[in-house]
Amino acid sequence: MWYLVISKRKVDFDKLLSRLPDHLDWMKQQHQTGNILFSGPTSDKKFGIYVARARSLEEAKQLVDADPLHLDDLRDYELFEWEVHQVLGTGPFDRESIQFLAQRNIE
Predict the structure, then answer these.
(1) Taking the chain (107 residues) in consecutive chunks of 10 residues, what is each chunk's mean pLDDT?
(2) How far is CA 98 from CA 2, 46, 76, 87, 104, in A?
(3) Terminus of the chain with fewer CB atoms < 10 Å: N or C?
């Protein structure tokens, strides 16, 4: 399952700069192991956004909680379980197929 993570800065950017190298090391490791597919900040640096892959919501929470910026309470986050239906123009684009996928995930 895929998860969308929106991480919001709680402190001035200057206050988290000292932990940024640890965050980036952690992020690189997550990309290398395939746990995170996309990541990056918004242009104003208030939010970090990433797409994570995990077997369950609990596993996704454990992953996101391990981010050094979350461990040090420098950021809060919202975690959304995400049903990805289309990727780079492939996947179903008709209502019946999407409803089928949604129903299959409920059962």
Answers:
(1) 95 90 95 94 92 96 97 96 72 64 56
(2) 16, 33, 32, 13, 10
(3) C
